[in-house]
Amino acid sequence: MSSTLALYKKITALPQGKRIFSVLFSQKAPYFASVHLSVEEMKPHLGQVVVPKRRSVQNHIGTVHAIAACNGLEAAMGLLAEATCPPDMRWLPKGMDVQYLAKSTTSLTCTAESTEADWAGAPDVPITVKAVTKDGTVTVAGTIHLWVVPKK
To answer: Which Pfam family, any one, appears in the UniProt record (predicted)?
Structure first.
């Protein structure tokens, strides 16, 4: 089990644990803090965060900016990768292919998912990602490509 996943399990067992873990996670990569995300789920093959609709992430038409959505997707992928990557391997994102499918008119739930078969294809590991509004509309969907190699 990765140290990040162990920390997630330990902290989220406490009162206000998800909020505390979300703050700590956002400090690890400061650009995650810019979207004020909250971590909803972290386990092997699944990462999920919520990006709230706030003025700081809105574009000129008052919807959540596409790049803020991508930031949430990358955060969800990072949780998944930390929970899934074998301990003798390391992961690095090497690309993101996304489509903007609809306006992001509410807070977004950003989800990253993979399968064991995806990881069996290392070093190239595709992670499926999507951002969904409160009413279930998928606004951004795509794949984040990871490079998974042995630690040196």
So the answer is: DUF4442
28-54: pLDDT as tens digits: 888 888 889 999 999 999 999 999 999
Crossing angle of helices 17-28 and 3-12, rounded to 10°: 150
Picking from 32, 120, 13, 123, the residue whose alpha carbon sits closest to that of residue 77 is 32
* Nearest-angstrom CA–CA distance, 65 and 67: 5
Cis peptide bond upstream of 123, omega within 30: yes
State the residue for tokens 């807070």.
Answer: 107
Write the DSSP string, 78-97: HHHHHHHS-TTEEEEEEEEE
Contact yes or no for 137/102 (Cβ under 8 A):
yes
- Whether residue 112 contacts residue 79, with contact meaning beta carbons closer than 8 Å, is answered with yes
For residues 49 and 64, the answer to whether their CB atoms sit within 8 Å is: no
| One-letter amino acid of 73 | L
User: What are the extents of the domains in the chain?
Assistant: 3-150
- Sign of the four-CA dihedral 136, 141, 143, 144: negative
- 3-150 is classed in which CATH architecture? Roll (3.10)
Helix, strand or coil, per DSSP, at residue 37: coil
Whole-model pTM: value is 0.94
